[in-house]
Give the backbone structure.
Amino acid sequence: MADQLDLVRRFYAAINRGDLAAIAAFYDPACVVEHVFLDDDAVYEGREAVAERWARELGRWSGALPGGRRLDVRRIAGLETGWGWVQTEWLGAIRRAAGAAESRYQAGHSHFWIEDGLIRRHRSVSREVQSMAEPPRAPSARHYPDRPAVGVGAVVVGDDGRIVLVKRRHEPLAGQWSLPGGMLELGETLEAGTAREILEETGLVVEVGPVVEVFDRILVDDEGRVRYHFVLVDYLCRPIAGTLVAGTDVGEVAWAAPAELPSRRTTEKVRAVVARALDIGRGHTW
């Protein structure tokens, strides 16, 4: 199922780029597309008809999310109904490409049938919403857990090579400079969780790149009991929009050159992850 999930992830990235040729290439020549376009309940059959309809959609509406994106994909998951089916949940924001600046917001989910590496069927169900705001999330139990918790983090590298650092407000590592990140939420993809945490902690909208490292962090109390146990996945990211500002979970945020990391008393692990990310970045094409 991993290949199907990755294909849908790349399909949404093409939509957010507004890349018509790439969007069309994901569809099977005999595809069927239902209820996908705004204010349009028509069914489109065949790649040529779908590509033409996408061209009209891209020409009429532009993305109203930071960086010009159209969709914030919250979940990509396989369906138990059969091999090849993928379900997504998303929030969308668009505005007319020319004229009125007022945005329209939607929440919805989509189903994809993937076969031979192409989308054979694509259908959506959506509703209008007032904004991109979501209900408050319930806090996760992190202290003295009964099982490891999954966290995500990022080495956010600016065009000038500097790295985003945050000073932690809460334990663990309260008062220390570290990389931004947080806890993955139920049903959330690793990439979506990384982008959400970076936005919440730093105010930056990022493009999530390759995995830098996966490791665990286990902290025990004076009695030897496990107080924290995290499995952490760090990604290489680049900022595409937003302004650096400290979120509620961090005390300070700053851009720092890699050479400054020791003076900010970052851990050896942070410095090693940054070095690896910079090495990966030299060979990565965004």
About this structure: The first strand starts at residue 27 and ends at 34. The chain has five helices and 14 strands. Residues 135-140 have pLDDT under 50 and may be disordered. The chain has two domains: 2-129, 149-282.
